[in-house]
Amino acid sequence: MNSNEIQIKAANNIRILAASMVEKAKSGHPGGAMGGADFINLLYTEFLEYDPQNPRWESRDRFFMDPGHMSPMLYSTLALAGKYNMGDLEQFRQWGSVTPGHPELDVERGVENTSGPLGQGHAYAVGAAIAAKFLKAKVGDIMDQTIYAFISDGGIQEEVSQGAGRIAGHLGLDNLIMFYDSNGIQLSTKVKEVDEEDVAAKYVAWGWKVISVKGNDIDELRKALTEAKAEKQKPTLIIGHTIMGKGAVTADGKSFEDQVSTHGQPLTAAGASIEKTIENLGGDPNHPFMIFPEVKELYAKRAEELSKIVADKKAKKEQWVSSNPELAKKLEFWFSGQTPSIDWSKIEQKSNNATRNASAIVLETLAQQVENMVVSSADLSNSDKTDGFLKHTKAMKKGDFSGAFLQAGVAEFTMACLCVGMSLHGGVIPACATFFVFSDYMKPVVRVAALMEQPVKFIWTHDAFRVGEDGPTHEPVEQEAQIRLLEKLQNHKGHNSMLVLRPADAQETTVAWKLAMENTKTPTGLILSRQNIKDLPAQSNRYEEALKSSKGAYIVQDDANYEVILLASGSEVSTLVEGAELLKKDGIRTRIVSVPSEGLFRSQSKEYQESILPNDKKKFGLTAGLPVNLLGLVGDKGKIWGLESFGFSAPASVLDEKLGFTADNVYKQVKEYLG
């Protein structure tokens, strides 16, 4: 235990650095960073266990930041720990800087998650705690780490906090400790102007242990963290009543603490004095970017302590490895991010099946062959057919994480966050499922997963208006266009930020899952049908031919000297096949192309793209979503039949007829197009 005097000195050092970063950048959020400095400093100098030499050590504690706007606090603390230098802090929010305005995933520097959209960061922590429990159930105490989270008033208000809080309490995640930086200030108002709820009572009701402390009192913080570490039944919420802009003063030395204005702008712009504030905190205004010698010594001492802690844990692991060599190999493989070799050709699909049912058959195989896979469903497992996975495992529950299925309840946003958190923790391959129309709830998470390049598998069923009698509230129309935009966005490595696949029949579904499992670099979306789909014609072996979908688009069937290319994804491809038969009777020759992923297709060579969709050929597209889904493939001179309304309530077969998704209408539209 360190003296309170040195801990206050270190927290003040963080305050000076954080405020100076924002001041130099002329942009940022200093107030919250100054208020939360005591907690984060104590966490890093006395509680958080990590390997200073190996940031990716799988048994490390994890710290998940929710309020990304408080990044100056995180960067300053990590600078004290040797992860950033003063030059990095001085380049806060600048082009090419390693200190962006909101933290972006950088495990080597100690940043465990990208944060910014409030609420998501702490939900990732819940997912990471679930992953840790799941792995501990498989390998034992060598995966006995603590997951810490930091949340602010804004994150507590975001609706995702309800789902994350409910599930964490329900599962009894005693390896999760969350600090709530309750300073009573948000960007444009004081919290009391928008919120009167009893946060402590809410978390107690969800099954959490709740401790309330003065958030800038070292003794109270230390006692709370010690008590939370000892808790073996529940997750713990430490409510720290902190002071916004702690230490800030005006030019004449008067306190400028607890001001709304310091939340989202430099201290000087807010009405305080940066020079006098730095002096008040024990620093030199002429040299604000420096680490006090005593603070440098404090963090060096902690590094030595960590070396001993890590050495002891690694020695215990070595003993475990010698006693459990096969299990040790598995654990190493799981954390490599790879997937086991699967003989996909051995998966026997039923003919003319719905692709959600075909997915269930694949999931049965995965449940038996991928030991570190976790699947979740938003109270729809018997409808999105993730119950195929559930046939060979069981649901997780408090005190028993030997199952590999997470029943998340009706909480698509939360569920998606939890799966991203599992992925960030490492060692686990997460997948989650719901109806495609409800991907709207998940979009903010999918976007950040793409930014972080996390290979979560998103399973979306009931892919079109053929949901039928449920009506337009349940019929996805614009959702495919929205999700496919992420195929067109490049990530920071210059790759498509997401893989989106809409298979056309059962065998294409097997291949889609193959591609999803092999994709370890980005999220994957699988868009699957509720209704049965006729198998596409095969020249010899349908599975072997479906393997061509690994290039995003391929030729299903081809007439010599074809006049027009008919293209689609999903269930519409089989409709094109039927329409082509009618056209052939009129002597019109066609090529039929299945395009499960335009993004994947566009990443192929120009030669391949031209071989499938020659520029000089007429093209007709059929999509159960917005026509824009196929515009990039058909082009301005082509023709697209799509859906331009929200849909209607009626049986699927009636909707197909009324909305023109029939072989007869394909025949009619192509005839008109060809003139």
Question: Outline of this structure?
Answer:
The protein is α/β, with parallel strands linked by helices and 675 residues long. Helices cover 43% and strands 12% of the residues. The protein has 27 helices and 16 strands.
In words, what does this structure look like?
With 675 residues, the chain is α/β, with parallel strands linked by helices. Helices cover 43% and strands 12% of the residues. It has 27 helices and 16 strands. The protein has a 6-stranded parallel sheet with strand order 7-6-8-9-11-10, sandwiched between helices. The protein has a 5-stranded parallel sheet with strand order 1-2-3-5-4, with helices on both faces. The protein has a 5-stranded mixed sheet with strand order 12-14-13-15-16. α18 links the parallel β8 and β9 (457-461). α1 (4-25) crosses α3 (37-47), α6 (120-139) crosses α17 and α17 runs parallel beside α18 (439-452). The longest helix is centred in the middle third of the chain and has 31 residues, at 293-323. It is elongated, with a radius of gyration of 28 Å. The model has no long low-confidence stretch (mean pLDDT 97).
Low confidence ranges: none
Q: What value does the average pLDDT take? A: 97
Strand order of the largest sheet: 7-6-8-9-11-10
Helix content: 40-55%
Give the number of DSSP strands.
16
Could you say which overall geometry the principal axes of the C-alpha atoms support?
Answer: elongated
Q: For the CA atoms, what is the radius of gyration? A: 28 Å
C-alpha end-to-end distance: 85 Å
Strand count, sense and barrel status of the largest sheet are: 6 strands, parallel
Beta-strand portion reads 5-15%
Number of helices: 27
Report the structural category: alpha/beta
